[in-house]
Amino acid sequence: MDVQTGETFLEDWALPDNSNISGSLITQTGITYVGVKTDDPTQLHLKMAYRAAATPAAIDWIYIRVDPELTKYIEEINIKNTVNIGAQVGYQRYFEKVDANTLSDVNTFGTPTGVSDAYAQVDQTTGGIYRVLLDKFFTRIPGVKPKERGALSGNWGVFPSVPLEAERYEANIYIKLSKDVAELQQELGRDKFGVQLRLQGQSSSGVATIAKESLNKNTIIDLSKQESIENNSNWLNSPSVHTITTTYEGKQMGSDGQFSNTLEGTDKSLIRVQNTIMNNLLYGTALDLGRPVSFNIEIDPQILNLVSDDDYITIWQVYRENSINHHDGGSNAPVMLKKNMFVDNKIKIEVNKDKAGQYENGVYYVNAVESFMNTVSSSPFVGANFIDIPVMPKPLIEDEGQLVSAEIKTWFTDKKNDQERVVRNSLASSYINLFPTTINFYDYSTKDTEQLLKLRESTYLVSTFGQEINGMDMGETYEISNYEFVTADPESLIITQKDGNVINLYYKKLSSDAEFYEPEVEKEEVNYGGTIDLTDNVTNLEELP
Fold first, then answer.
1. SS3 content of the chain, % helix, strand, coil (to 5)
2. pLDDT, tens digit, for every residue of 356-369?
3. Domain boundaries, the chain
4. Residue 220 — very low, low, confident or very high, per pLDDT cuts 50/70/90?
5. For the chain, how far is it from start to end, CA to CA, in angstroms?
6. Residue from 26, 71, 15, 83 nearest 51 by CA
């Protein structure tokens, strides 16, 4: 929810039926908003990052989902990879809108084939869904009919099918609107709209495979923001991107560079923002980069208001973005901030050895950039920094129907001739949906497949945030602690386990004045993706409620 307008950006994107999560060969991907095109106020500029060790099996399409209010004004979405090395040239491609007739694949000649697309039957009143081929026949030229597909030319893959980490893997995305942004602002009465990214394929039997790295990737279109003036540094060769996760009573990075248990027993949730920094060169060798850089953070006040005055917001870094458990700060301790240090919801972390550890007017000083960034990360081992935010969600529980979208931005700045500049490809924006809901949870024994034995029925307030929950306690005798990805909407909450199995939790809300209720018990309301015997997880059935 934008504090200024009271609007929700875009609700979470539910996983399609009959889907699984794949680790794939995609190492990094994401999307971020750049701004309204400077010379054309009817075009919105976004960037997509993509890196892979090889072409990912079973991942054929780039999907994006756009706020339904903005979708009404979209005339065209084009995308162009910026690679231009040797014989490889990036061609402009075009997203196609998914509809009821869209099929899952195309053959060599460009003819649609396969089963119905995983989103063909999805109600798009909650978000318009578009797709473009990831890398299939990348070398085919656009030709005279660039929006169609033929045997030799047309609208084919965006990225190289044999990727090399040394190349530039970013793509510019332009959304062409039927009206300029000033008209839209007046008509819609709001500036901000959500966009979500997902990389996915589909088998001939209809099973959708989603690249794990593409989960939780979104950004915010802001009609009031034009393209930023950036320096021309070659330090980052793809846009920085966020991944936001939440963990109930999660392990926060402590001041000693070790994960701590300070949130245990507090009923607080840990929001973790992973900012992947797409390094091209070593920080010390990059051109047109005024060193040392500063790190800037802007956090939505709706999140800051949920941080206790006594708690710290922690900023820390790793050498490789996928090595989250290996903190590489060396002698530089993580940066520890209090929420009252944020001025207008922003703070700058600046290097000044003489003032290290001091704070003044929205600026916190550190002795070296290694406090918030790893200087030796470079392609292909891109680095990342993290923002750990402990929050108490109880203030949101007053209204069970409440849905709140909260934005987070990060960027680096440098100085040249005493002028502060935004570092090229360092700006990243994303959002998280926060919503309290009540779920009914049912456990069944599947020993008798004809008549399932109900072991337990429980009611839980899901007061943790959004898209990833670890270790939610489902009772004293049975616990699910293998969560990896969670999506939710007003009627269901879907948990995907690390092994790819999907647990669907269907729930109904309890009215705020309800004294009691009787849950509606239905068979197979909990689908574990396979037959298991829950009695193996309990010691005495008679002790169950």
1. 10, 40, 50
2. 999 999 999 999 99
3. 19-222, 241-433, 437-543
4. very high
5. 39
6. 26
